[in-house]
Amino acid sequence: MPLTGHADTADVVVVGGGTVGAWCAYFLRRDGLRVVLLEKGMLGQGASSRAAGVVRAQGGTPEAVRLAQWSQSFYRRQRDELGFDSGFVAQGYLLPCFTGAEVTAARTRMAMQLELGVDVEWLSPAEVDERNPTLAPGQTLGGTFCADDGYITPPRNVTAYAIALARSGVVVREQVRFLGLRREGDRVTGVDTTAGPVTAGAVVLTGGPKLAEVGRLAGLRIPVGGARHQVAVTQPHPDLDPFRVPMVFDVASGLYWRPEEGGLLFGMSNPEEPPGWATEVDEAYLALMRARLDQLVPVAAGLGLRRLWAATIDYTPDHLPIIGPALGPDGPVPGVTVAAAGGAGMMWGPGVARAAADLTQNGFSAVVDTAGLGLDRFDEQGRSKVPADPIALPFPQSA
Ligand SMILES: Cc1cc2nc3c(=O)[nH]c(=O)nc-3n(C[C@H](O)[C@H](O)[C@H](O)COP(=O)(O)OP(=O)(O)OC[C@H]3O[C@@H](n4cnc5c(N)ncnc54)[C@H](O)[C@@H]3O)c2cc1C
To answer: pTM of the predicted model, to two decimals?
Structure first.
């Protein structure tokens, strides 16, 4: 496919050069469409380059599981397809339980996951301790473990999609901001940008934590918010050799960790903090994160930090993705698709992107049944009518 194309005419315009928009643009191009990707800054400058990279098929709903399974299989075949990859490592992911209620919920989830083909197993308390010698012994009531779950390296994922975009011939327009939709009657005919109009018969809107703003520019209400999320990496320690440390998600507190450069990478958001744009590290909350980590992984206590960052993570009120037609005040806007990963863009991003590319072309996707994932599940106040993903990070409930 050619590397060049018209910057002002396309079959599809995709807004947002994060993992969702970029992979969507690539999939559309690979399907033979002419695609222009608009990014107001640089590719990956949003949440996608700042994530922790956790990728888990142990999802809380069948849709979450299917999106993660599709994304994981994409990460695994990238090298063959692209000659480059996002750095996926199947580290194994443990979700320990600390209360009877957590055990009941985990076993119910596990039954659903097994039915969908996830290779997840139940570990007894002794097996948890054996499989994870860095975890303080005798703390858990058991947990679920999936050896296929793992992590990608988010900056490498940005490199992978930049390569895919260039090789496939997507016209990437960085430093160009989407300003609104162009319409004739109820049909979309293109977009307005800071560099002039682009003509196109279809538009995909992404934006991560900025998606509500992108929606406003398009005349749509999209209930996606942003919240501070902190990630830190400890200095190395011999006990934290990756062979001894599965990834762990303490679901109730929202704290997760994984091996990184001989130390631990750990992260979480403060569920009590009002949503908003993250501009600095919250040292007081970092201390609480560390206290919980030190309690569960004693060897981490006292280790220095080699990296620490705060960034804005996207969320939807029910923590589930949005993949569906745009809904304006007068109903659906034909030709416009909205795609959001609900704060799980490393886990679900390629699957969300593939499904959005499918909806744009056929109104249907084989990746996941999108019937329950559209904007019509939210009321006027942005409240979702469906139950929230039970194992998401503990985020605000409204956007
Ligand atoms: C600290 C942190 C840790 C995380 N850890 C994980 C994890 O471990 N696992 C996981 O699954 N997820 C994780 N996430 C979430 C994940 O990073 C996001 O869900 C994902 O990156 C969202 O991708 P996106 O493409 O929708 O958004 P983004 O990556 O934010 O991309 C949106 C892009 O749209 C652009 N844009 C906005 N407005 C306009 C406009 N008007 N015109 C043109 N372009 C515009 C922005 O500049 C941006 O580049 C984490 C996020 C953070 C912040």
So the answer is: 0.97
